[in-house]
Structures are given as structure tokens and as C-alpha cells.
Design goal:
Elements: E1 4-10, H1 14-24, E2 30-35, H2 42-49, E3 54-57, H3 64-74, E4 79-84, E5 87-89, H4 93-103, E6 107-115, E7 121-122, E8 125-126, H5 131-138, H6 149-152, E9 165-166, E10 169-170, E11 174-178, H7 179-185, H8 197-207, E12 211-222, H9 232-250, H10 253-273, H11 276-291, H12 294-299
Helix pairs in contact: 5-10, 9-10, 9-11, 10-11
Amino acid sequence: MSEISIIVVSYNAREHLERCLDAIAGSEHEVIVVDNASSDGSPQLVRERFPAVRLVELPENRGFGAGNNEGMRVASGRWFLLLNSDAWPVGEAVGELAGFGDRHPEVGIAGPRLLNPDGSLQRSVRGFPTVWRLATEYFFLRKLAPGTAALNAFYGAGFDHRTVRKAEYVMGAVLLVRREAIAQVGGFDERFFMFSEETDLCYRMRRAGWTVEFYPEAEFVHVGGASTRAEWGRMYREQLRGHLLFLAKHQSLYRAERARRLLVRALRLRALLFRGERAATYRQAAAWLASENAKALIESSE
């Protein structure tokens, strides 16, 4: 059994995937690439340039969580390092992150310190969605007092990204997940196609008694948006659907419906405040949210 299985889910991100695999493919760890039906030659790249990497090709794109579930099913490690195709470790970050987990048997998920490509901090700790927290984000209320929990808990308020700390949830760009914890709580909920799948998993981990920790001694670079930029209008709606699904699943359908109505108003306001493609994205998203109730939108797929 490998100590660490690195699982990379990729969809039409060949350029970033190559950079990612250059950093990890020669390591001692098991590396698995799950390709979500890419059309950009990503599978051929893996077969030709990285023959030691295990390639799992899915016949269709079922989303980020589903891809990771497939990777974890075939992985042999005690730890699963779920790594975005546009991310890579700095130095020995993989082993450092797993070492932290080994020293703390209560940890179900650990997230590293994320860096932008220019070396600046990428804030990666978040708070679970509530109707109020969504209001502070989508109506720009957090801009009034970005360091306060009252108005910016959704984005982690003043979370210290320099010290080891427990978190509500950490961004899914890089997640170290304990096999034993996954065996207990289950993998990703595949109803979340993209966005909020890690939110849901961290929530279930915490409820089952595991901790979610931020470990800044391990650093990874994360570019961001490798698989979403080309379809951002659709992905933005998936982000909104993820909020509604999380609220319906863990709070109530009533709160999901309240959030839907709030988001319609917020996005209509944003469409008035911005111009160009951004305004169009907000306008289309508001129209989508207004088209049906929360239950129907949660159950929809595009």
C-alpha cells in the first residue's frame, strides 16, 4: 500500500496538467489522473509523457467530486492528496502535509497554504454558507468590514494564514484526505457538479468527529480556473446551485428558497452596477434563479 496517493482530476486543462505532473510524477507517491472526457489531448499527454501515472478515462464529464471519487476508488494510499490540475507542490509539501496528518490522528482533512503564481497568498479558508453569509457576499456587505466575523465569515474573516488552525472548510484546490475518514463518511456527494463539493465534505467530516485543519508549513501553487474559464456562465450558475444544494441538504429547503430569492435580487443589482460580460453573467444567472423554485433548480442539470 502506498502512503500517499495523489489524485488529479482534469478536464481540458492540458497545459496546466503537464506542469502539475512535471512536479509530482517522478515522486515516490502513487499518482492517478482521472480525465473527465477531455477533448484537448490530455489523455494522450499522460500516456506519452508520464507512462508511470495511472490514467482513468471517464466517458463523460460527471464533475469534480465524481472524478475524485473514481480516483479514490482505485487508489491504494492511506492518504489521498486531491490535487487540482492547475496546482503543484512547493518543495516537499506533499510529504510535509501528510506528516502533519500522521501526527494528528483526529485530522480528517488538511489543507495547505496556497500561493498565487506570483508567490502571493491565496486565501483558502472559508465559512459554511448561511442565508446571512450569502447576503454579506452577494450584496458586498463584507466590503464594509472585511476583517469582522459578522460581515465576512463566509470568506474566513481575519483567518490567520500563518499558523496551524482548525477551519470550517478549506478550498478544494488541494486537500489531504484520510482514507479512514472517507471510509466512514463517504466520498463526495456527486450532486455537486462543480463548487461546494468540498464544503459539503468538510461539513460531513466535522459532524462525524474529524477535524478540518489548515497547515501553512506545506505550500502549493494554485493558478485557478483552469477548467472553468471557458464555460464561466454555466460554472457560475453551478456555484449558485451549489449554495442552494448545501443549504437544502444541511439546513432546510425553506432556507434554500430564502437564499434563492435573496440571490435573485443581489444579482439583478450587480447586473446594474457592472458592464460587459460580467453584467451579462449576473443578468443570466438572475434570470436562471428566477425561473424556478430552489427545489427545481437543485434538481436541474445543464
